[in-house]
Design goal:
By secondary structure, this protein is α/β, with parallel strands linked by helices. 38% of the residues lie in helices and 13% in strands. It has one domain: Glycoside hydrolase, family 3, N-terminal domain (TIM Barrel, Alpha-Beta Barrel). The protein contains 10 helices and 10 strands. A hairpin with a 2-residue loop joins strand 1 and strand 2. Helix 5 crosses helix 6 and helix 6 runs parallel beside helix 8.
Length: 250
C-alpha cells in the first residue's frame, strides 16, 4: 500500500494513538494540566495546538476572565427552563457555538445540571430547575446544539454540588436512593441524549470522598455503568489529592 493510500485509511483514533505513543509520561501529564487560566498545553512535536476553554453557560466569556471581546448574554438556564422548550435550549446551544468559534474556543463550560435545592444558592441562575428530568432533557438539547458545530460542551458539576455554603469544601452525605434518583439522574439523562465531550468534577466531597477522585462515581458509574468515554476534568482548583511531579515520577 502506498503512503498516500495508507494515510487515507487511517482513522482519527489511529492518528491519536500513534501521536500519544511518541510522548513520554511527563509530556503526557503536561497535556492534561493548565497552561493558563483557560487553556491546556499544546505540543509541537505531534502538531497539537493548545485547547481553549471558556466559562459558560449563559454566554461565552472567552479565554480572558475580564475584558476581551464583547459577546451576547443569553437567557440563563432558570429562565429557559420556564419555557419547557427543548428546541429553544438547542437553539441557544447553536448560537453559543457561533460565539465560541468567534473566539477560538474549543469547549464551553456548560450546561449546569445541579438542582435547585435552596433559594440561597448563589449559582442557581446557571442551573435549570429542581427537577432532574427537566434539567437533563434541556441540558441534552443544549449539548446537541453546541456540539453540532464542533464546540465541546462540559456538563457540570459532577456531582451533588448544590450547596453554596462552603461549596469548595462541603462533604455531602447522601443515600444511594437520593443520589441515584435526584443528583445523578440529570447527568445520566443528558449523557444519553446529548453525548457531551467533557464533564466537570465538582469541588465538594461525596460521602467522604472528593468528587474529583471518587472511584465509585467516576469509574464505576460514569465510565463503566453509563459507558461514557469523554474527558472528565476537575473544576478550577478542585483537585485535592496531588503530589509534585518529582514525587510522583521518582
Amino acid at each position: 500500500m502506498s503512503e498516500g493510500n495508507e494515510a487515507a485509511t487511517r482513522t482519527v483514533e489511529d492518528v491519536i494513538d500513534r501521536a500519544v505513543r511518541e510522548l513520554d509520561l511527563e509530556v503526557k501529564v503536561e497535556l492534561l494540566t493548565g497552561a493558563a487560566a483557560f487553556s491546556l498545553h499544546g505540543n509541537d512535536v505531534i502538531g497539537l495546538r493548545p485547547m481553549i476553554f471558556s466559562d459558560g453557560p449563559t454566554g461565552v466569556r472567552g479565554s480572558e476572565f475580564v475584558g476581551g471581546k464583547k459577546v451576547a448574554l443569553f437567557p440563563n438556564a432558570t429562565l429557559l427552563a420556564q419555557a419547557w422548550d427543548e428546541t429553544a435550549a438547542e437553539r441557544v446551544g447553536e448560537m453559543l457555538a457561533g460565539e465560541g468559534h468567534s473566539q477560538d474556543v474549543d469547549v464551553v463550560l456548560g450546561p449546569t445540571v445541579n438542582l435547585h435545592r435552596s433559594a440561597l444558592g448563589g449559582r442557581l441562575f446557571e442551573a435549570y430547575a429542581e427537577d432532574p428530568l427537566l434539567s437533563g432533557r434541556l441540558a441534552a438539547s443544549y449539548i446537541r446544539g453546541i456540539q453540532r458545530y464542533g464546540i465541546g460542551a462540559c456538563v457540570k458539576h459532577y456531582v451533588a454540588n448544590e450547596s453554596e455554603t462552603e461549596r469548595h469544601t462541603v462533604d455531602v452525605r447522601v443515600g444511594q436512593a437520593a443520589l441515584r434518583e435526584l443528583y445523578l439522574l440529570p447527568f445520566e439523562i443528558c449523557l444519553a441524549g446529548g453525548h457531551p465531550w467533557t464533564i466537570m468534577a465538582a469541588y465538594n466531597n461525596v460521602n467522604g470522598v472528593a468528587a474529583t477522585e471518587h472511584d465509585e462515581l467516576n469509574n464505576g458509574v460514569l465510565k463503566s455503568e453509563w459507558g461514557w468515554d469523554g474527558l472528565l476534568m476537575s473544576d478550577w482548583g478542585a483537585t485535592k489529592n496531588r503530589r509534585s511531579r518529582r514525587q510522583r515520577w521518582t
